[in-house]
Specification:
heterodimer, A: Transcription Regulator spoIIAA, 2-enoyl-CoA Hydratase, Chain A, domain 1, 7-stranded mixed sheet, 6-stranded antiparallel sheet, 39% helix, B: mainly beta, Lipocalin, 10-stranded antiparallel β-barrel, 2 helices, elongated
């Protein structure tokens, strides 16, 4: 059989002109190349994600799934108050149907998100902002802008987001309302220089709802003389509820500019949230700092965003942060001296928390 | 990191090997073909780091292709600069994203002349370096996704010369397929604050293959001469960049109708 085939091939070689065989060889090479390309193409597929339909049930499914795959406190909240996200699905799924109005859907979905008890979890539509604010609304404010006016008077200084003055007993007072207000190194140099002869410093961040973490770090770095461990952070590495990276230590690097070494009191209340909560956590790890006021609001998950088929924005906690003892601060930080504003003091124009802080500094 | 270095070394070795094959002659004529094209069309963007939704909208692309070939040699060089920009929205037009990328391709192609030189086939490999971004205008701590990768792509080009109403036309088809590469990606739930402010990296440089990053690119053009050295080139460019790493999915599909000018130069180079 092989002999016959070989003989026939010889005849073909003898009969065919040289150019034809060369072309045949080239075509053979080309065919091999095309086969190789075809093989690679076979493995080449589209990378895609299934989209939910833009219906009430489709949006509900999309929201539940985004939280299921990205939210970072399922385990912690299971331990704290028995949160079961699968149960939440069953509970709210039966309240959703494709005949409901947009506003009804918004209400049901906001209620579902409230099960997470997280101020960083929000649903944003053009007409409303779904939120869970019970972490501060269920508590007394422990802050009064009328009292602030009494203490700051009218001749206070303003450096970017900070209002400041020297109180009568030679204690510096800084009111920082929001970490969304940027502060520069120059601002901090000026403020600390102004307080150079003071015996101590009060930093009032009550009702500071957060903002830029970098502002919080820039301010805190003025109160350490060496690299200091102030907390830990991790992030999700997959869609599962337990898929997390290792805890990564977070250090506060001392500022190379003017630094403060005298006693410091940081005033807190339930309105201290997110980046402000993180500032309180960092300052709490420092030896010459006393936290005075009421337990902070928490919010230790760095939030990320996503969107739904109907265009609504959803925000959720994605990266958990811990204090220097690896403890969760999602539900707040207990201050060193815990107290509320006293009603009698308030009526007399006295801020109980500021006065307590003054006494702490005077006693050091 | 050792694995990445080893892979990059192998990629570089493969490319330099193909390059070395073509450098034997000393004196030669070199033909350079330079084409500048601009185009517009549709873009489709998905990035699950930013949103689970698909975004689509218009985009523009500029493409510069330089091909160098010595007639007596089988191997030639191809170099392409591709810049694209897209403005895309979700299906409700409430959320917007901007996408932009610069892709540089450099490759070596072997040539076969068939059918009385009417058909030219070229095959080889291209290295692709890409830098880009996707910016989501609504997000907070995940507002953007950086795109950076280095790929090795097997490439084939077919050019066919024919006449239409006695007017010469060249149809050219170019296909580049994925093989392997290396890319940057944040981890699944990692914020850019951790990566770039704190310097905490976690699986941010990933090796990719044609399974995890099945990117490919194709271009079909028709070219007809306007003068002895200038030709008009029109065609379609499809660039399909996609990856699935760190449980994140991304695709950027660009479809462009391209139009431009091609110039041919003959350069006699002398080497001692």
């Amino acid at each position: 059989m092989m002999t016959v085939l070989s003989h026939k091939l010889n005849i073909v070689h003898r009969l065919c002109p040289f150019g034809f065989m060369q072309t045949l060889n080239r075509l053979h090479t080309v065919a091999l190349m095309l086969c190789a390309i075809f093989m690679v193409t076979m493995f080449t597929s589209c990378i895609d994600e299934d989209e939910q339909p833009n219906t009430p049930t489709g949006n509900f499914e999309a929201l539940w799934r985004i939280i299921d795959q990205h939210y970072c406190f399922f385990d912690y909240k299971q331990q704290q108050y028995g949160l079961d996200w699968q149960e939440v699905y069953v509970k709210y799924k039966e309240r959703v149907n494709d005949r409901m109005t947009e506003r009804q859907l918004f209400e049901v979905m906001t209620n579902m998100l409230s099960e997470l008890r997280d101020g960083h979890v929000n649903l944003g539509a053009s007409y409303d902002y779904g939120r869970y604010w019970a972490w501060k609304e269920d508590y007394t404010s422990d802050y009064s802008d009328s009292l602030e006016r009494i203490y700051l008077r009218t001749d206070y200084k303003i450096a970017s987001g900070m209002k400041y003055r020297v109180l009568d007993d030679n204690i510096g007072y800084v009111r920082y309302e929001s970490f969304a207000d940027a502060i520069g190194e120059g601002n901090l140099d000026e403020v600390l220089s102004y307080f150079l002869l003071c015996r101590g410093l009060i930093i009032d961040i009550r009702s500071n709802g957060g903002g830029e973490l970098t502002n919080a770090e820039r301010l805190a770095s003025r109160f350490v003389d060496e690299k200091t461990l102030v907390g830990y952070m991790q992030h999700k590495t997959g869609t599962g509820h337990h898929d997390f990276s290792e805890l990564k230590a977070q250090y506060l690097e001392p500022s190379s500019r003017l630094r403060w070494r005298k006693p410091v009191c940081v005033l807190v209340n339930r309105g201290v949230f997110s980046a402000a909560n993180e500032f309180a956590s960092m300052m709490h790890a420092l030896p010459n700092v006393t936290l005075v006021g009421y337990r902070t609001g928490g919010g230790s998950g760095m939030p990320m965003s996503n969107s739904l088929p109907n265009g609504w924005m959803v925000r959720y906690s994605a990266c958990p942060m811990y204090d220097s003892q690896k403890r969760q601060t999602e539900f707040g930080i207990e201050p060193d001296i815990s107290l509320h504003l006293d009603d009698v003091d308030t009526r007399r124009g006295v801020d109980t928390i500021i006065e307590t802080a003054r006494n702490v500094i005077k006693g050091k | 990191m050792k694995t990445i270095n080893r892979t990059l070394f192998v990629l570089a070795l493969m490319l330099s090997a193909t390059s070395a094959m073509a450098q034997t002659a000393t004196d030669s004529l070199r033909i350079s073909t330079v084409s500048h094209m601009v185009g517009g069309g549709a873009s489709q963007v998905l990035d699950t780091y930013l949103s689970a939704e698909h975004f689509s909208g218009p985009g523009v692309t500029y493409l510069c292709t330089v091909e160098r070939q010595r007639p007596q040699r089988r191997w030639g060089t191809i170099m392409e600069h591709e810049v694209n920009f897209s403005s895309v929205s979700d299906r409700t037009d409430q959320r917007d994203e901007l996408e932009g990328a610069y892709n540089f391709y450099w490759g070596r192609l072997r040539r076969w002349q068939l059918l009385d030189n009417r058909l030219t086939l070229q095959a080889g490999g291209m290295a692709n370096a890409s830098l880009g971004f996707i910016y989501n205008s609504s997000n907070s701590n995940n507002p953007a996704q950086a795109r950076a990768h280095l790929n090795l792509m097997p490439t084939g080009v077919a050019s066919y010369r024919f006449s239409v109403m006695r007017h010469p036309v060249v149809a050219r088809y170019e296909l580049a397929l994925p093989l392997a590469g290396v890319m940057f990606s944040p981890n699944y739930g990692q914020t850019y604050y951790e990566t770039f402010v704190r310097g905490d990296y976690d699986g941010n440089v990933r090796l990719t293959t044609f399974v995890s990053a099945p990117e490919f690119r194709q271009m079909l053009t028709l070219e007809t001469p306007l003068s002895a050295s200038i030709a008009l080139r029109i065609g379609y460019l499809g660039n399909y960049q996609q990856f699935h790493v760190n449980h994140l999915k991304q695709h950027v599909y660009t479809h462009r109708f391209m139009v431009g000018i091609t110039r041919r130069f003959s350069i006699i180079s002398r080497r001692l």
